Structures are given as C-alpha cells and as structure tokens.
Amino acid sequence: MGDYVAKIAGRVSADLEPGERLLAAMKAMPRGAVKAIVYPAAGMANLGVAGAVAGSEIADRHAAEGRDEAEAVGVETNAQMITGLTDRRILLWKMGGLRAAPKHVLGELPRAQVASVTMGTAKVLGQTMAEVTVTTTDGAQLHLQVPRVQRREAERFVEAFGATPS
Hints:
This protein is α+β, with helices and mostly antiparallel strands. The protein has helices at residues 3-12, 33-73, 151-163, and strands at residues 22-30, 81-86, 89-96, 101-110, 114-124, 127-136, 141-146. The protein has a seven-stranded antiparallel β-sheet.
C-alpha cells in the first residue's frame, strides 16, 4: 500500500463497498485543467481585464478537452481530484480544503469497463507531467495529469491495475 493510500484510507472508507479494498490513489487533474487555471490569471497579470477575458476564453477551450473526455467515459471530473483504484472500480473524488482531502465521489468506473490504465508524459505549459490514461472497453479515454510530486503514486496506480484481477 502506498503512502498516499494510507493517508486517505480513513477519509474514503465510507465510499467503499463492504469488503472493497483501496489499492492505489493519486492526486490528478483532467486534461486541460492546468491551463484552465493558469491562462486567466496570466492574461490579467499581463493585459489587465482584456487579458483576463481572452485568457478565460482560451481556458474554456482547454477545460473542454477534459470535460469531453469525462463525458465520453461516463464520469464527472473536477480541476483537482483524487483518483483511487480499488479491487472493484476506479473512483474519482473532488479534492478540497486546506489538507487537499477527498470531499465527495464525482464518479466511478467498474473495473469490468476498464480495458487498460497506462502512464506516459504530457507537456503542460513547458513542464513535463506524468499522464495516466484510463481506456474503457469501448475505446473512450480519460487522460489524468499528475503533479510531479505524485509521480510515484501514479506509477503505483498503474502497477496495481495490472497486478489485480479485473
């Protein structure tokens, strides 16, 4: 069990079914979420109100990437989430508060509907981030961008998916 799993296990236990085990967890953002957060602020800082408006329009286009993917997979996402893998499903929690704790379940994917979970990288605003891709049995994909400090948790998440029966 990873350190992060131990940290959140008590907070998410009420969301698990009887006998269900949390195997891995990581902080993640849907594709486009980082840009959606940064662009309006950068526009405001550089060009004032007009820059903020332009930045917001660009941000909306980037955020739409993640929303479209989530809709295709059949889950809701949030700019900051915790993604958990159990022996039965993948769960997405909204993350909030000063301790970045899981607040409530946004969505879930039964493992029987998940064909694969893989890890690659993505360039986001010049930074390389880990990117975990969840592919469903019908071919839809959800790309989850993972902060650098959570890379090991992302690796554990992918390893745990491959190591447990679906």
